[in-house]
# Entry
Amino acid sequence: MNKLGADSLYITDLIEASVDGIFLLDDDCKVIAWNPKMVEITGLTSGQVIGKPIFSVSFQFGQKFFLDGLKQALNNSGIVLKNNFHFATDGSNNICQASLSPFNLPFGEGLGCMVILRKVSQKFATHSKMKHLIEESPIATAIYHKDGRPRYFNKAYGDLWGANSGMAIKAITNYNILEDDQLVDLGIMPFIQKGFSGQPCDIPIIAYNPYDTPSIKSLGINEKKFIKGHIFPVKNANEDLEEVILMLTDITFQRQADEILSETHLKFQMLTMGLPGVIYEYEEIGDNPHKFRYISQGCQEMFGFSPEEVMEDANKLEMCIHPDDLATFRNSTQSSEFEAKNWEWQGRIIVDGEEKWIEGKSSPAKLKDGTIVRYGLLLDITDKKEVEHQYKLTQERLTLALEGAELGLWEWKAKSGRTFLNKSWAAKLGYTKEEFDEAFKGWKSMIHPDDVDSVRAKMDDHIAGKSKVFESEYRIKKKCGEWFWVLDKGKVTERNKKGEVKKSAGTILDINDSKITQNIIEQNEQLFSQLFDNAPMGIVLLDDEHKVVQMNSGFQKMFGFGEEDIIGNQLNNIIVPEDKNKEAIDINIITAKGTVGVLESKRQHKDGSLIPVIIYGVPVSFNNKTIGIYGIYVDITDRVNVEHELQIRNNELDNFVYKVSHDLRAPLSSILGLVHLASHDQNEDDIRQYISIIEDRVKQLDSFINDVLSHSKNLKMDIAVNKIDFKKVIENCFEGLGYLRGASNIDKFITVSDHEFYSDEWRVNEIFRNLISNAIKYLNTEISNSFIKIDINIDAERAVIKIEDNGIGIDESALPKIFDMFFRATTSAEGSGIGLYIVKNAIEKLGGNVNIQSALDKGTTFTIILPNTKDKAAIKA
# Structure
């Protein structure tokens, strides 16, 4: 049928009545007719497809082979497609062959296309000698045409990839294993090609994801699986390749377990080995000799006999059985035959001197004539037996490895509610394995009370699916009662249909020593943090760019800057005065080279004042590289002030020594001169006059020495607090100074308030003695009414003392120096020049202050304020 007429009614009747699926397309490939058989085949109604482009109706019509055929038909050339369509509807698989024919559209609108789908026998489409042997096999198995197209996938194969029957149909339709670029990229295409060239071959472990293969990407299976398998050819009697069988084992879980336990994949190696074998049909004929009705070519490789030889004499196979296993073989066959049940046997055979292990299985079937026929499979399990041996060795090695790594394996089963722990770790806890299995039923009692809630919460989160694995650090109790830290990791390995946990497994690791070390480190970090924060000096941490990353409160108190001013900035731009920039850069360079830098300098406070400091630059190193600097600032303001005060005192001492030596020499020189005059033979002066002058000089010298001693005593003597009787002190001073010239001619006006006062009696006496002495010495001889007024007001806090005279007074220019050591305000002064110095020092020792007002020829007034130190302890001078 190259062209169809335009009689649409005829076409409609033809389509509706056809036993084949037929649909029509216009020149835009849109569906214009869709018969009932198409509904049956595809499950799609005409309402769902009419008016739509055919390739949008089903992915089946978007395949390249169909689009190429459609293109040819619309170019006025019919075609029968070689590839089949597979439609899954209501659980059935419809396999169809398609033919495409052009026809003229009505009204001269161009060419359309008629597509006829004819159902192909499913049995014919998927026929394989191996199908009935593998369809219920737990091993994922696929059968391929010799050109690489899939022929059949068993249920286990679909389960491995999480595929349903519809997905299997898509894969059979679209996929070709020899055109899979992902297998090329994974490097195993040579193994696949070897199988398709007629040679059995092991498939090494690969990580395969169907989503990464374009031809089956539409299946939507986007999960990488680690798989390993075996590929072997199935040949006919002429040794021609008929089909290829691929067996796969999912070892994803094993690969994940390998991250924790090396070599554990060997536990499953027996499942990944190739299974070359013999398929047979065996007839049991009563008491007559039994015979093979069919046996595959594999018997040649397994037993060394051709199929023809074995079918002629079935006893040839029994001749190969190892003598030690012959009895078990005969017992098993006789028992299964007598009871008409399935037969299973494992044993050894000897072929050409080589020992092999084989496994046999068969199922009986009774024919209509009463004959019992067994359909069976013989597999070479030599490799499996070797794997079992290796597995045993691996288990032993694994046990040794776990013991060496101090790693425990546990498994919990919901049904029994029991936790199983490997023997070595049970012993580590002080239990036998049996004791632990029993003790851990009350697992909460074995976990430290402070850790139970945390462990339970993490476990609940994992069970609820909030975390991929359960992981917790907690303390567990040994049988002896001792607690120690462990790291527990595990996961749910099996759930029931309701999602409830059936089984979980994991590992447990002794982390007690590391946990103790961690706690010590945390304590040290805490101690360091407290030391850093609470240190009395200012400390900052600089990064490798000399920017501040951390500062303590001492730094803030010292310089007044907050974290917002300092963090992230360079100190050279904040606290370093302009004239100190070079020295700041130099110490940074020294410290960056790994040397501790020390510098005494000044740094600027936020208020602009300069603070004298000692700066220590301490490098922080890692792998012999300086990664930061600790800057430590020590405020030496007090030290600088003390040094300044010491310098003043040294200057005073130098001056003091000079003046003392001078004032001691002057009266001594005068006395020595008078002695020389008195001893002169021709001197006729009155010796008594010399003696009187000497007496005055001695008294002057004695007064000076007393002043010096008073000064020394004031500096060294501790303050002794006593009740002060000011009236008595004043009275004693006037009495003791009565020898001074003019002392008897001075009027005295003394007022003392009635309140108790406590202070150092000796120093108070010295203050009054010196001030009253000066008032007497420097009275104004030009007037006749010289006076001294003393007014003392006392309260609980202090005493305000005023001493006023109307003597010669002091020139205003001399007032600033009046309290300096050895300063004499007038040339007529007879004193030592240290009296007022002693007064000022004594007042300061007592915590008071003094003020002077004076006018030349009018007199002088001293105002003194002393604290009342009642009930206070003695103060050190």
Remarks:
- The longest strand covers residues 92-104.
